[in-house]
Design brief:
mainly beta
């Protein structure tokens, strides 16, 4: 037990310098875990279910309820002006506003031949991002739109073979990944089941299909997802997820290298929760003694999010 606690403390200390991560990153995706506040972006009505503040080191968000009305604010980054959330107990709305100033053209100064000082003119841009969600015909319904992208998400209880929920998403994007103007679309449909055990363990099993035309050939993937969240102690939780995708359209495996398995840790400090994703779990499992004794040169952590609940 002493070695386990030492290991977890070392992991915690070594990860605060890295980028953000959430609990659901290590459990197969937010859509499969309706109780997590990570769902708010896709299902805005879930803002009504939380009194929480969190940060990942790059931004800060707080959500609270006053007399049956939920309010939420996010500090934002870059050119964000405002990011607001609202809920009345049933419906939920998210609103974001970003403004970028116009840029004047600058000609290259021929006197400095080794430096190109050219700046292209660019118009001022105002970005508006709106999300809306509510219960609809026995489903969780979420809608999202901004100046280029539009999407709909649905989730409902549905008994199909070994699964008890279905998750559907459709998105139309304003431009392809190579910068072309023709846009692209994506669709997914997943059947999944969350199972809770008395030992403090939760499991996920999901099977779904996903289509997108982001590439010239497109892709139609068969996706398998497994996730486990299990308490190691009364204050520490281990999370592991495995995903596999096969492109039926092009008859090839669709996994991204190194991303089939993800792991994370959760620490419960009463009202505070620290969620972290692990980066070098392979090194830990192959050479645990080095990490237990603090002789590791590379940090295990890849990101963190700290939350306060009341």
């Amino acid at each position: 037990m002493k070695n386990v606690k030492t290991l977890l403390i070392l992991i915690s200390i070594s990860t605060f310098m890295f980028a953000s991560a959430t609990r659901t990153d290590a459990l197969g995706g937010a859509g499969f875990w309706a109780d997590d506040y990570a769902n708010i972006s896709n299902f805005p009505s879930s803002v009504n279910n939380h009194n929480v503040a969190w940060t990942d080191g790059t931004d800060f968000t707080s959500i609270w309820n006053i007399d049956g009305t939920t309010w939420g604010f996010t500090g934002g980054t870059g050119d964000d002006v405002a990011n607001v959330m609202w809920g009345n107990g049933t419906m939920g709305v998210t609103f974001g506003l970003g403004m970028t100033a116009a840029v004047d053209a600058v000609a290259d100064d021929a006197a400095t031949t080794d430096i190109d000082e050219t700046v292209l003119a660019d118009d001022a841009v105002t970005d508006i991002d709106i999300g809306f969600g509510m219960p609809l015909a026995g489903m969780d319904f979420g809608f999202h739109t901004n100046t280029t992208d539009h999407g709909v998400n649905l989730r409902r209880a549905q008994d199909i073979w070994v699964w008890d929920h279905v998750l559907v998403g459709a998105n139309i994007m304003g431009e392809t990944v190579d910068g072309a103007d023709d846009g692209y679309m994506a669709f997914n449909c997943d059947f999944y089941k969350n199972q809770t055990y008395a030992s403090g363990t939760s499991g996920l099993f999901a099977l779904g299909v996903g289509y997108n035309d982001m590439t010239e050939d497109g892709a139609f993937n068969l996706n398998w997802t497994f996730g486990v969240e299990s308490a190691m102690t009364d204050w520490a939780t281990l999370r592991v997820a495995y995903t596999h995708a096969y492109d039926l359209m092009n008859q090839t495996g669709a996994d991204e290298a190194g991303n089939a398995v993800v792991m994370g840790l959760g620490f419960n400090y009463g009202s505070f929760n620290l969620d972290m994703s692990l980066n070098s779990y392979d090194a830990l499992l192959n050479d645990p003694v080095r990490y237990v004794n603090g002789r590791n040169a590379d940090a295990l952590g890849a990101g963190w999010t700290i939350s306060y609940n009341w």
